[in-house]
Amino acid sequence: MPRALITGVTGQDGAYLSKLLLNKGYEVFGLLRRSSSGDLVDERLRWLGIAGQVQMMDGNLIDLSSLIRILHEVKPDEVYNLAAQSFVKTSWNQPLLTGQVTALGANNLLEAVRLVAPGTRFYQASSSEMYGLIQEPIQSEKTPFYPRSPYAVAKLYAHWMTVNYRESFGMHASSGILFNHESPLRGIEFVTRKVTDGAARIKLGLATELSMGNMDAKRDWGHAQDYVEAMWLMVQQDKPDDYVVATGRTVTVRDMARIAFEHVGLDYEEFVKVDPAFLRPAEVDVLLGDASKAKAKLGWTPRTTLEEMIKEMVEADLFRHRARMR
User: Fold this and answer.
1) Is residue 165 among the annotated active site residues?
2) Does the active-site annotation cover 18?
3) Residue 250 near residue 284 (C-beta atoms within 8 A)
4) Are 256 and 306 in contact (CB under 8 A)?
5) Contact assessment for residue 133 and residue 284, using Cβ atoms and an 8 Å cutoff
6) What is the pTM of this model?
7) How far apart are CA 211 and CA 85, in angstroms?
8) How many CB atoms lie within 10 A of CB 155?
9) For a tag site, which of 94, 96, 263, 266 has the least CB within 10 Å?
10) How far, rounded to the nearest angstrom, does the alpha carbon of residue 11 sit from its chain's CA centroid?
């Protein structure tokens, strides 16, 4: 039975990846950061019905000693680093914390693997936000990076350190440059979930409007359940490498909101209001990924359309709110 250690195991991607690996016969361990809201940390795992199947290990990415201890105890075949301070807006308010966790935390984990388990296969969750002020209209593995937020800068450090450890120490270390990927498990602070939750609340009479930021930003949105499969496929390759994971389709936040509100029979223009407080200091206007390398080498293609994903998210938010209203 192969063993996998997942950081960020209680997040959206960590939950879906845990389910995928469990279904493949893995023994799954999760790095769990101590929190005073401990009763809520496994909410996403419970949503997927796998909370009791993931073995939690007490540790923290910014504590190298805890990572070394956990690697000694678990002896994983594969390590997936999905943990980060991952909300872009927060990274401007907490740039140092974002750097410590998202950048140096990844470096701590790479170093721990190098010292304790150099034969372990390593996956780093890189981000399309690293492209930032895009240098090419369609972004591939060869497109230059131009990060536009503390989060993106931190992700870029972690990305290049993964490449450096692979080339310097011969580690099986791969990075997935994942474009935006969403699901019913997405955090409420992210724009897609904010929209689907807002549509559900307005439909149920729990709200009368939804305040948004830049409605014209364009993103390449896919489903997290599809994208975690690409992570696993990268780790199974004979040679480690970096891959863009994307749908190859980009739409505006405005269009995404229209899809969500239409699903509940509403016109988004009647309810969505632009609030300057939600605008970023430096905006990333367009992201559009070229995943042809992942398709050719991994055999990976996305299965879920944007429309299917948004409708699934709206239905999940309707279910949550109706349950609270009982």
Assistant:
1) no
2) no
3) no
4) yes
5) yes
6) 0.94
7) 24
8) 29
9) 96
10) 8
CA distance 102 to 90: 12
DSSP 8-state assignment for residue 180: P
Cβ(127)–Cβ(155) below 8 Å: yes
d(CA 125, CA 110): 13
Condensed to tens digits (0 to 9), the pLDDT of residues 262-287 reads 999 999 999 999 998 887 777 778 99
The DSSP call for residue 210 is E
Residue 151 CB burial class (10 angstroms; 0-12, 13-18, ≥19): buried
The rounded distance, in Å, linking the Cα atoms of 287 and 249 is: 9
CA distance 99 to 150: 7
Helix axes 306-325, 253-263, angle to 10 degrees: 50
The alpha carbon dihedral of 180, 183, 187, 193 has a sign of positive
Report how far residue 7's alpha carbon sits from residue 56's, in angstroms, rounded to the nearest whole number.
10
Burial class (CB in 10 A: 0-12, 13-18, 19+), 44: buried
145: its two tokens: 């990076």
Options 80, 131, 151, 268, the catalytic residue: 151
Per the residue annotation, which of 91, 123, 129, 174 is the catalytic one? Answer: 129
- Are 249 and 220 in contact by the 8 Å Cβ rule? The answer is yes
Residue owning tokens 């372990």: 120
Active site residue 151: yes
β-pairing verdict for 55-58 and 27-32: parallel
pLDDT in tens, 134-189: 999 999 999 999 999 999 999 999 999 999 999 999 999 999 999 999 999 999 98
What Rg do the C-alpha atoms of the chain give, in angstroms?
19
Angstrom CA distances, 204 to 92, 314, 325, stand at 34, 12, 10
DSSP3 helix / strand / coil % (the chain, rounded to 5)? 45, 15, 35
Burial (0-12, 13-18, 19+ Cβ within 10 Å), 205: exposed
DSSP at 280: -
